[in-house]
Structure formats: C-alpha cells, structure tokens
C-alpha cells in the first residue's frame, strides 16, 4: 500500500506526513484507510487503493456478466428486471468507487449541500494529497452509529439519531436528487459537541446515487401517498416510476394498496415485524391472484435506491426499535404538498395536523375492522369442498413459487455483491444456493 502512495506523489510517506499509522483504521476489498498527521498538525485519514485492483475488478465483472447471461434465460426474472441495465449501472458504480478523484468531487458536493446545516458534517478534502488512487480527508471518525453504548454514554438520544438520519436521507433523495448510496455503519458517525449537541457525520463517498427528475416526481408522489394514506396517488406514483408491468390489473392493485393501508397504517417497525401470521395469511388469501402474477418490474436505478433504503431502515430500527416510518414520512409529505401548492392544501394540512399519534390507535383499528368485515361480505363465496381444496392447492403452489423466486433473486444479488467486494467464498456459496433454488423451482414447475 505504501508503494501505491509513493507512486502517486513521487515521495515516501515520511516526506508527506509527520506521522503515518501503518496499521489500517479500516480495510475493504478496494482499499485501506490509514490515520496520519500533516506537518501543520492536522489529523487526516488517507485512503489508499489496493495494487492491481483494476485487473481484479475486470475479472469479477466478467464472471458476473456470465452469471447474468444464464439468468437472462429465466423469464420470471427478465420479465421484471432489465439485467443488462442493472449490470451497466453496477459496473459504472464500481468503477466510480475506484476513482478517488470522483469520490473527492462527491465529497465536495455533499459539503456544499450541508454548508449551512449545523446538524450534518462532511469531511474536508485535501486536494494536494488526493489523486485517482489516493484520497486524503479530514479525520472525522467519532462514535460509530451502531455503537449504542457509546451513544448512550454521550447522553445522546438514539431516537433523535434515527430521526435525523432518516430526515437527512429523505432530503438527499427527494430534494437534492443526490444521495449517499452506501449507508453502512462504517460510513456513519455521531460527533458529540462541546456545546452539548451532536452532529451526524458521513464518510466514504465512492458510491452515490442520482435521482432523475422523473424518478424524483414518482418518489415524491409515493411519499405523499404514504404520508396522506392515498391509494390513488400511490397508483399514480407506481406508474410514474415505471414499476408496473404492462397489462396489470390496476383496479386490483388499488384494492390491495387500500387493504395494506388499513392493516399497516400507524404501526412502528417493531409492530410490523410482530404482525400475526394469520393477518398475512388473510392478505395472501384475499389477493392470491396478485401474489401469483407479481405485476411489478424493477428498473436498475430503483434497485440501488432500494438497497440504500433497506440498509437505512435497518439502521433506524436498530437505533430506535419503535421507529415509525409513517410518522417520519408525515412531516416530509406535508412539505412536499406545500411545495406543490393548490387550493386543497390547507384542508389536507389541517387533517394531517389533527391526526396525532393518539388518533392513530382506536379509530384506525375500528376502521380496519369495519373494512375487513365489509370485504369479507363482498367476497364471500361458498364452494364445494373439492373445489375449495383445489383452490387452496393452487394458492399454496403459487406462494411456494413466489418464495422460491424471491430467494433466488436475493441470493443472486447477495452473491454478486460479496464476490465483487472480494468475499469470493461467500459469493460462490450464494451462487450455489441460488442455483439449488432455481432447480427446485424448475422441478416444481415441471411436476405441477
């Protein structure tokens, strides 16, 4: 690694720094991070790229392209995912991660974004010590965001950390259209301040996401729909983002979204995790046709955004088990609505203001109970025992196929990420399990 440093600047680390820690502060498949001190006394972190990393990436991408070639023969996946676009987006993101000049520019862009925000800190880039293979940043390694004990000892409310983290990402995605796409615990810190407050700190800007104007409008509609419990707007958002397959039954999807709102509205993440299995079985039975068809497709840009949001939601729930997605989206939806304007805005904001946390309990439960009763009366259909048994058999097969497809896709993506990040054993293990799942699903299809 020191050889890469010397080649980048034509000088040894002793000539560049007063002190340089040879033991890495953090290590990954693409590079290592070392602490150092400049002649002026500033403490910095130096990110150094691994030797021959470009050749390794080329080999890994070639292997991934071959796997995608196999997957393109499986219609249930190609029908929902543009694999070529996904591979192109993944390749672009990976090559950008090994271009430290691009990462430095991303850091400067985030710094400008939060220049007037005292709640967020972005490290300063030392341009004279930054090249395509070496990046030098201000040392901002404080309390890791998953170090709950240290956060508590610093007298910082973890609920506040979860809330600020969530709001910061909403602002990046929906307002700026430019977001930090790798929010794992090693890239996020909490900085206690002498004044008694604290700041949220971001590091590692190699993986960022851009939200196009069209996607931003669709995502904004999606947030407003969830924040205002509006299934009509939810359907419009789906269509705007291009996630619904051609020929899908939009009315049936509308019914499913309405049922989900009635079941999930106002629940915390802990409540959602602890949802009774009977509730899920009831939904699966009522909308078995949708579960069988799965009328959705996944654009490549949404897959990377979805990965980011999935990691983010897990971190927020870890910080605050009672983290409530709906309450977090509520104020943001109000702001988006206010930006849109309209004569009906005041009335909607008045309704949102009147719906406090206490009003999301009893009325919501009564509304859900009445809706279920109404639906059951409308959909009640008495069948002969043999026909009912046949329908249940079809439903069971459909759910098994759906689960197999989901496991297959999840294992494939996990294997690709592990393999390209240097975890070859874990990557090939996931690929093998994905192959087993695929063969099992194919066998079930042939024997059905």
Structure description:
With 448 residues, the protein is α+β, with helices and mostly antiparallel strands. It contains 20 helices and eleven strands. It has helices spanning 2-9, 13-16, 53-71, 75-78, 83-97, 100-113, 148-153, 158-176, 213-228, 231-241, 250-264, 269-273, 277-286, 288-293, 300-319, 325-340, 345-354, 362-379, 385-420, 424-447; strands spanning 19-20, 26-27, 31-37, 43-49, 120-121, 134-138, 143-144, 178-180, 188-192, 198-202, 208-210. The model is unreliable at 342-374 and 376-385 (pLDDT under 50).
In short:
By secondary structure, the protein is α+β, with helices and mostly antiparallel strands. The chain has 2 domains: 53-72 and 384-448, no CATH class; 143-380, no CATH class. It has helices at residues 2-9, 13-16, 53-71, 75-78, 83-97, 100-113, 148-153, 158-176, 213-228, 231-241, 250-264, 269-273, 277-286, 288-293, 300-319, 325-340, 345-354, 362-379, 385-420, 424-447; strands at residues 19-20, 26-27, 31-37, 43-49, 120-121, 134-138, 143-144, 178-180, 188-192, 198-202, 208-210.
Write out key terms for the chains shown.
single chain, 448 residues, alpha+beta, five-stranded antiparallel β-sheet, 20 helices, 11 strands, globular
Please outline the helices and strands.
Blueprint: H1 2-9, H2 13-16, E1 19-20, E2 26-27, E3 31-37, E4 43-49, H3 53-71, H4 75-78, H5 83-97, H6 100-113, E5 120-121, E6 134-138, E7 143-144, H7 148-153, H8 158-176, E8 178-180, E9 188-192, E10 198-202, E11 208-210, H9 213-228, H10 231-241, H11 250-264, H12 269-273, H13 277-286, H14 288-293, H15 300-319, H16 325-340, H17 345-354, H18 362-379, H19 385-420, H20 424-447
Parallel strand pairs: 5-10
Antiparallel strand pairs: 1-3, 2-3, 3-4, 4-6, 7-9, 8-11, 9-10
